[in-house]
Amino acid sequence: MTEAPGGPEGDSPWIRTLEQIRRTLATRERLTIDRPDLRQAAVLLPIFEHEGALHLLFTLRTDTVRHHKGQVSFPGGGRHEEDADLLGTALRESDEEIGLKSAEVDVLGALDDMITITRYVITPYVGRIPWPYPFVPSPIEIADIFSVPLDTLRDPALVHIEEREFDGHVFYPIYYFRGGTHLIWGVTGHLLSHFLEEAFTWTHPDLDPARCTSREDIVNHWLRMNISSNPPQ
Hints:
single chain; alpha+beta; Nucleoside Triphosphate Pyrophosphohydrolase; eight-stranded mixed sheet; 5 helices; 11 strands; 27% helix; 31% strand; globular; disordered N terminus; disordered C terminus
């Protein structure tokens, strides 16, 4: 799908950025969570070029889905027995939710695993997709498909940081991204901030490093909470 670095696309700044993302994800040490007592899931962060700029694709969930009703998300979901691996999960779910065929995805790499209060361990993958694309959204799961330029997502004026307390523990930073008329937060906001940090060494100018909760502390807290309040059956 992608021209070789020496071909016509290889001379474009955006393709050089994609190859840099590929190298970064391939060489970094990824945080993995090996917990067979928790449910496995995977998502795809679809990235594409339009008019010389890179964009990320998002979905808006319907009000009829089980989790995260009406929220912005990336395509993805829980692992099925027939999935060969978690990448297969992300690609299958992307096909089911928005009609994106796995053969059309150039997988650039994976980000850190993330644990959620719904007892899922999410593995995020980043993949380049063609644009434009004949998406076919699932009417049960997807209310809308939209994209936001990466330059917009990295604009500090459109990003808000808060701290939140949950289960007696303070988490900071909690990111809220403004993408047009959509507010990107929660699990998707966490995954998006992680991607921007790793792929572009992006940091919000208002971020206070001394207050940051490390990814390891976040994982350990959710694991303790899940063990204490939701023991495996």
